[in-house]
Design a protein that fits this description.
The complex is a heterodimer of chains A (248) and B (300). Chain A folds into two domains: 1-77 and 167-248, P-loop containing nucleotide triphosphate hydrolases (Rossmann fold); 86-164, no CATH class. Helices cover 38% and strands 24% of the residues of chain A. Chain A is built from eleven helices and ten strands. Chain A starts with a strand and ends with a helix. The chains are: A alpha/beta (248), B mainly alpha (300).
Amino acid sequence: MLDLKGVARYFGGVRAVDGLELTVGDGEIVALIGPNGSGKSTTVNLIAGVFPLSAGAIYFRGEDIGGLPTHRRLQAGIARTFQNIRLFGQLTVWQNLWVAQNALEDRARRGFFARWLGGRARAREEIFQLLEFSALAHKQDELAANLAFGEQRRLELARALASKPKLLLLDEPAAGMNSEEIGQLRERILSLRQRGVTILLIEHVMELVMGVADRIAVLNFGQKIAEGAPAEIQADAAVRRAYLGGEA
Amino acid sequence: MDFYFGLAQLVGVHTLLGLSAYIVLLTGQVSLAQAGFFAVGAYTAGMLTVLAGWHLVPALGVSALVSAATACAVGFPALRIKGLMLVVATLAFGEGVRLFFFNFDYQIAKGEVKVGPLGGEGFRQIRFFPEHGWSTLEVMLFIWCFVLLVMALLWWIDRSRYGAALRAVGEDELAAQAVGLNLTAIKVSAMTLGGGIAGIGGGLYAHYTTHIEHSSFNILVATFALAYPIVGGLQSVFGTVVAVIFVQAFLIEGLRDLGDWRNLLFGALIVLAMNLRPRGFLDARTLASLKRVFGGGPRA
């Protein structure tokens, strides 16, 4: 699904991501963990196309997407959420999902004018399902800015799903959540996998990472220091020293 | 009565000017170029009716297209700059247009007299309305047909997915790209539509004043264009109309008897209005309560 080959990003002299190799297979949930400043978010931004690559290449379903602008990558099937929530606060919940329906299949199915200038009716069914999935149906006409924190997180996830992604990049989706909300998030992530969405998860909350990930990659100073199944990572001495803590 | 019809003409034209800035503001772009597009429309329509002898309606169509094309050309470089830098760049463009018309001569002889734009002297004898014997009332109704047409168009856009996308870009460009919106297409299309609206407004302006010159399109006009939608509120196109009536009919005409005090009050009242209604006259809450009162009225 996704192949990072020697991916690097330098900010001046800082090597935020430095020669990263990572593969995410179809239907897999891969977690990327590491201490603050280890290059996790930069990696997501590189895959989503926020910054250009300094070196290396990114292949998505066999195609080099390194030069595509952000919106083209989304249309190709890569959606994301943000570490610090970025909703359209003055749009309603419904509108937040509506503007995000930009999947290629939607573009092909509906004509240009129907897509942009047509009414809400055509979009209703799909958005209703997203609202149900995110437990936001009762808030559909609320402005996104007026939602509670947990609701905003759910809306951001729903907005990413509105483009029917094949690969979903989740940048710290559990930040600031209590353990009940983390439990619900876990259920959502697992049910997305059931539907065939591949997920790259960036997270500090080990409770979530260990619960959902098939494979974990650990970053430190922009480089991958370990990769393996959750149990292997927990036992890895280098990872403990760099990140998980404990007296290894 | 003619005084009020004349005032309604002015309000109509300024509404078009304000609406041209409204759609651009939705995408978060603060543009001082609207007076420039207004000028391009005014000169284009004036030259077509006076020099080429066209009817006003097709002339307005062409002036909308020419202004839209100009705005599209301004839109692309404007993509690379944001905030204050965009204000400065669009201001420079607007002044450039004004200076162009300050130096623009294109006169042809028509019978005894020469007609057409003459540099600093301006463009006189745009006499389509008097020549065709239109009364002030008829001109006013003609202008408002276009205003209502444009308002209906923008109202529809506001309710469409395109309208939601404009606002999404205005709120957060990074997130807008991340949900698959093409920033270039959305910002440039908004600028182009705004240019077209300003072009129609300019064309109408040229014909009801019958005389335009470079100073009719100065920075003050550009500031008014921005002020209307901001004072009126960006929630709905109706806010812009309310603001134009407030500024042109109340502050400028209504307070005319106050003499010099008016200029002083003018600024103070605008500041007061913005303090009392920071999100504009018609903000989300006011619109919601209007909707309750009138049931099924304008939707924000």
